[in-house]
Each structure stands twice: as C-alpha cells, then as structure tokens.
Amino acid sequence: MTLKNKVRTKFVRHLGKGFRDDETTIRIYSRDLADLPPITRLFYNNTADAVVLPSTTEEVKKLYELATENKVPVTPRSGGTAGFGGCVTYKRGIIVDVKGLESELLIEPFDQSVLVSPATVISELQRKLNLQGFSLCSYPSSFHSATIGGWIAHGGYGVGSAKYGGALDQILALDVVLPTGEIKKITEKEDLELFVGSNGTLGLITRIQLKIKFDIPLKQFGCTFDSPLQLAKGLKEISEIDPYSIWFFNPKHVEEINQSFGYSLPERYVIIVSKEISYEEEENEFNLSFNQTVRNAGGQILDRRYIINIWNIRFKTFAMLKEYKDYLTNEIILPIETSSKYLQKLSSKIDGQIHLEGEMIGKTHYSLLMFLYFEEKLGPFKKLRVNLDLYKNVLKGIKVKGYPYTTGLWFSGYYQAIFGKERYKKYKEFKKIVDPKGISNPGKVIPPRFKLFPVISLKTALKLASRFML
Amino acid sequence: MSSLQGWQVDVLDVAQKCVYCGYCSLCPTYKELKWEVNHPRGILDQIKLYYSEEIKDKLRNDVSKQLFESVFLCTACRACEDICIVDLPLLKVWEQIRQEAFKRGRWNPKLLSLYNRVKDFFNIFGLPTEERVSWAALSGMNMSRRTQKKAPLAYFVGCQASYSGKMGSIAESVVKILRKAKLNFTILGTEERCCGSPIFLAGGFSVGKTFAKHNLDQFKKLGVKKVVTACAGCYRAFKIVYPRVLGEEWDIEVVHISELANELFEEKKLKVINPIKEKITFKDPCELVRHCGLSDAPREVIKNIPNVRYEELPSNREESLCCGGGGLLKLNDEELVGQVNSHLISEIQYSEANIVVNGCPTCLDTIQQGIKQREMDVEVIDIAELVSRMVEGKK
Ligand SMILES: Cc1cc2nc3c(=O)[nH]c(=O)nc-3n(C[C@H](O)[C@H](O)[C@H](O)COP(=O)(O)OP(=O)(O)OC[C@H]3O[C@@H](n4cnc5c(N)ncnc54)[C@H](O)[C@@H]3O)c2cc1C
Known about the structure:
The structure holds two protein chains of two kinds. Chain A is α+β, with helices and mostly antiparallel strands. Helix content of chain A is 35%, strand content 21%.
C-alpha cells in the first residue's frame, strides 16, 4: 500500500519533523542485519511508505490510533540488529523508529531494579548500572548496538542466560501502547510473556522495568571435548555447577578465533565458562568442581593461560568477518539431550565450512549460531541458495526438538514451535482483541500469505523453496 | 603515500564491507538525531546507493542531499572507527565524501568561507598574519628573540591560541614552561600557518598539502627536530596527516605539551611549587586519545601535584565523550554541538570537579560554553595552563 494523501497528511500533522517519507530514508530503513538479495522482494515489500520518530508515549499512542483508524501497518524498529526481518516491513506501511523515544533511566537500588526506555542501547545501560555497582543479569552479545526493547520484543537470550535466563526472566513490568492506542502497564508473568518474542505484533513497548544484580567480577575457565556427543555431556554437567555463562564453539570456529585473535586453542569443541566470583576461596572452590565435572564428562581442562582475556572478545566475534567478503548466518535453539547427532551432522555440512557458536540459555537448552564466511561477494542467487540451505538446517533442528530463535518474518508460523500450544492460543486471542485491524507489524509471528501466490503462506513457500531450490 | 591516491580509500568498497552490527550507534551526533540516515552504518548504506549504477538520477540526487548533510554532521571524534568490529577506515570515508560534496558545489556557505579564510589568510579567523604573535604582547611577553630563531625545538602555537581571546593563556603558559625548563626553542611567528586541519577535515587534500609543506619548510629552515604543541588538532595533523601527505619528507618529532611536561617532570627540570588544592578532572580530547592514542601523559602530569584531588570522568580515555565541537560541526549545526556537549557537561557535573583540564582549544571553548549555560562554578583550563600554575604559582 502507499499512503493516501489524506492519510499521509494526518501523520505529518501529528509528527511534524518526526515524519519522513523521502526515498533515501525509506531505503535506508529497508533492512536489518540480514541484507537479503533483491530477489527476496518477491516474498515481501521491504520498503515502507514512511518512517516516523516519535519521542513520547503520547505520540506513540496517537500514532497507533491513526494507524488503526486508517488501517496502516506499523512496524517497530530499534537497533535493527536482529536478522529475522522483524523490523522490516512486509506490507509497506510505517516504520516507527523507537530510538526516538526520550531516554529514561532510574535505578532502584533497594528493589534491585531499573526503569528504562526501550530505546536504551544495552552497553549504555550496563555502563550506567556498573557506575552504581549493579549489572544486567543477562544480555545479548550485540552489546554495543541492540536495544533493551528490541531484545525483549525479539525474545532474546545471551551472556549470563545460563544462570539468569533470557529476556523474559529479567522483566518486572512493561508499559506498552497497544495497537488500539491504549496505554497499558503489564506486570503479570503470563501477560508479560506474550510480549517477549512478540516482535512488535502486539504494539510498542515504551518503558521497561528490569531486574538487576550486583556487579560481581567474572572469571573464566575453559575446557575442550572431542565430539558433539561429549560436548553435550559436558554442557549438561557444567550447567549443574551454577556458572554465569557457558559459551562454546565447534573446531572450525576455534580455528578462526585462533587466527583472528591470536589464540592457540586446541581445535576441538571448546567451552568457555564464566563464573561470578567475589573471593579467592570461591575461585579455588569453583576451579576444583569445574575440573572434576569436566573430567567426569570426558573432557580436557584448558590451562587458563590459553584463555587469558578471552572474555574481551565476547562482543567482538563479528570481527572475524574482517577477512571475508561476505557472510551468512542463522540461529536455532536446541535441547542438549537430543541434539548431539544434529550437531555432528551440521559440523560436517557444507564441506565442514560451517562455524558454530553456542550459548547455554538455561540448564537444558542452548542457542546455536551458524555462520558461513565467504572469500567472495556472493551473487544474488548464491546468496539466496545458501540462505535457504541454512534455513533448511534450522528446520531440520526442529525435528530434534529444537526451534527457531525467534519468529520475525522469516520464521513466522513457528511461534507454537517456540513457545508451545498454550501460549500460542493465548497470543492469538490477545492479538485479536488488541489489534482488530491487524496493523501491528503484519507478516510477523503469524505467517502471512505468500505475495506471489496468496493461497499458500510464506512459511510453506519458504519450506518448499528450501527443499526444492537446493 | 604522498599522493592523493595513497591518501584515499575506495569508499564504496569500505561501505560494502560493513557487516551492519550497528556498534557505531555510539556516534554522538547520531545519538542526538536518532534517524538511521545519520547512523554511520546508514551513511555507508547511502554511499552504496550513491555510487550504485542501478539507481536513477533522481534518487542519486535525493541520496546525495542526505548523504552530504549527514557527513557534515560528524564531529570527527572517531568513536565509530574505534569501535568498528571490522576495522573500517571510516574517518577517511567521511573526509572523502566531504571532498565529493565540495566537487559538487554542496558545501554550506559558512564552511566555504572558513575554507577561503584559511586559504587566503592562513588562519581560521581570517585575521591578518601580523596578528599571529599579538598574544605575546597581550601577555606582556617579548618573543622577538625567540621568533624565527634556529633551535632544535619549535613551539607551534596554532590558530586558536594565537588569535582567540577565549583561549586564555595557553600560549603564554607553554612559553613559561619551556623557559622554566630552560629549553632552547623557537616559534615560527608570522611564518606559522594553520596546520591545515580544518581544510583536511573538510576534505581539501591539495590545499591542505600546501600548508603542510610550508610549515615543514619553516621547521627545516630553523633546524627544528622536534615540535611541541598544545593544540590537539595541530598535534593530530602533525602526527597523522602530515606523514600521509608529505611522506618521508616529514621527519619531525612531534609532542603534545602534556608529553613534554611529563618528560620535564621526570627529568626534574620542572618542580611543583604550587600544590593545587581544587578537585581536578581531565577530559580526553578525541584528537588526542582516539586519533593518536595519547591519554597517559596528561594524567602523569597531574599526578605530580602532591595529594592531588583527582577524579576521572565516568567516560574517560578511549571511551571519553565528545564535546561536539570537532569536525567543523560548529559551522554546520551549532545547536547540535550543544546537545552533544550536554552529556559531557553532565559527566563533569557528576565528577564534582572544580577544574576541568583539557588539551584541546576546541574542547576548551565548547566545554566553557556548556559550563556557562548551566551556570556551574567550574574552571576550564588547558593542561599547559595547569602545568604553568603548578610550577609558577597562580597569579
Ligand atoms: C554482533 C551481534 C550479536 C548478537 N548477539 C545476540 C545474542 O547474544 N542474543 C540475542 O538474542 N540476539 C543477538 N543478536 C541479534 C540482535 O542483536 C538481538 O536480537 C537484539 O536484541 C535485537 O535488538 P534491536 O534493538 O536491534 O531490535 P530490532 O532488530 O530493531 O527489532 C527486533 C524485533 O523487535 C521489534 N521491536 C523493536 N523494538 C520494539 C519495541 N520497543 N516494542 C515492540 N517491538 C519492538 C521489532 O519490530 C523486531 O521485530 C546479535 C546480533 C549481532 C549483530
């Protein structure tokens, strides 16, 4: 759709300088982390009619009221660092750049919580908390660019999730503007969980209250395993000794880390464990139990001299892309119990060129990031083909009880696989009530119709494409 | 690498190498403006569009307007390049796009007038060359015996300390330090020309090079082996830009006054006789810390004060906040400078310091404005002024 003049005028009147629809702006907002080849435009309409930059909740409220009244799709966008198409339009309409929201940050030391604007970049929030002796519990490794609101809406996990869980586990309350324009404060767990992973389909998060913790120093420990099966055993047992984070790589990725950052890690499955440690005795105690656990699981302890400062590359793994001309990535969540064979197969995939980086997101599941690096700039067809190949590998993961990281656009239709039947039912009921005209980020979470052949859904179209185009 | 080719990068290639991680969202002007078109990553996307063969002229024109506007809103603080995960030479890209804007006649009039002033009068204020040493007369110093004299060390005063009344006693202080340490030094006097920084920042390679050449010839003529400056902009020009534009011809050692003072304290050629009691903080100028990696020397200097009351700003060293005054932003959007600066002023307030020490005339001026606006009782001085107080006592 293209905005009718009368409708456009209403938005311009409402937002003034916070409304832009020049072609440059629209083009610049037509992507997220995944810059997909033009051929994918057959699937969706990634250029918006306009981009808006509201600064207050009241402005957001009026914006949604106008959008509902005039049936204009609204797509929220924050850091634009997720690669699932969640913040890219499917049916044109308006992109709301959440970064415009006024900054807000109030630390409540006694409650151990912080009240914050969704547009706050994680590193900025963490820095301000650190200044007062506090820290976020868990956060994504897109530390310097993702926003706290985007992370919640996308339903993320990250550093510290082994101990503190994902986005959902940190939230105490959310202020949201529903698509109808109603402003609501949400505090009940079962309502909060609807917004985590909603990818902006239930309206816009305008304020967040998060749990925080004391800023306890982290110490790193490392170990290696020879096979995915052993790795799984190691992950399971290490999870039991209460670490802060469990981060691991496949041998291919280890090779790259060695080259890029000058380490000499053994090219096996490497696990880096981080533990909150305040006292030396604690460190000795943990060291002992870590060593024992690793040995019991059949792994080898990495001398700590091998991993000096390895935590410093926690937010820099994209630096490895420096030596390459192109890269493609996808992500899946897998249960430890059932995924070692899958991991084995994946590692040997694509001539053993696949890089895998994982993070435990609790005691039973881990997120797995798959990377492919290329020495040449990929042409549109190759890019599409390899993307579909990675997509197919995520679908294969579903067969071993895994699920896509989030829905966004590319995995719309997998909400149930991610969150279960009950929650999907609740989500659909809630969506029907709060978004009667379906204006809130259409095409995301619930699979849209395939643009070229509307009888089938995008989910089916992608599934077929990943099966037959390869 | 003294040719234009050696100086330039393939901007399209750089833009295409961006991995879109978004880490450059820490750009201080993007943080204020908040539109993705002002985000360094968004500017790279505009560059891809601008140089794309597939787009129509109308779109190219549209893109160029936005692109040229965006690159001139850069403070050249280099935070984007420092954090870039794939090490893209972003500053060079912004400079080249500014150059492209110049070629297309798209500079704003204020910028063009600065460019012409520097070109015609050899200083950023467009003031007569004879006035270059009037700072000496104003501070009651006789510099005639030092001017254009053969010496191994030259003090390069810079346009701001030479001409601007706002710069307090920077030049006077440097001279006092050098005299106190009994160093044999010279100044170029009316033969000193702007280091060329504003011209290079605006993207003017060839004109800038004539300035570099002139200053080098002057140093050579006087047998200068080492140059000291109290201006972060001049320091950066000498350290980074001159070697690029002049190649091996540029063989002069360059030190910032904080480095020299640190050496002089270590060698006991300077002694503290006035132990400053006020609480001090230091604001790292972007051009010193991020461009040139200089952050220890000023701190070492300050440490010489017995029982010093020193407090770091929350964002310090490589992470220090930009004051907003660099990159010629003042000529493009004064209001935006104030917005960027306000975060730094808040940090200064948070530190509860009575004196903010600095090493860059542009920062000094910008911070002073911010402090005045908030009616704070804080003194802003240059590190040279601090050292002079330490070794001479405050008048
Ligand atoms: C280097 C790198 C490392 C990464 N590491 C991790 C990681 O460890 N863990 C992880 O989970 N992800 C990771 N990611 C992916 C991504 O950064 C995160 O998912 C991030 O949390 C997304 O935040 P954002 O602000 O960029 O959101 P966006 O990409 O802008 O948006 C994400 C989704 O949320 C919606 N949305 C955004 N803001 C709001 C709002 N205020 N209200 C309602 N809906 C909204 C959007 O419509 C979209 O659907 C990484 C990415 C990069 C580039």
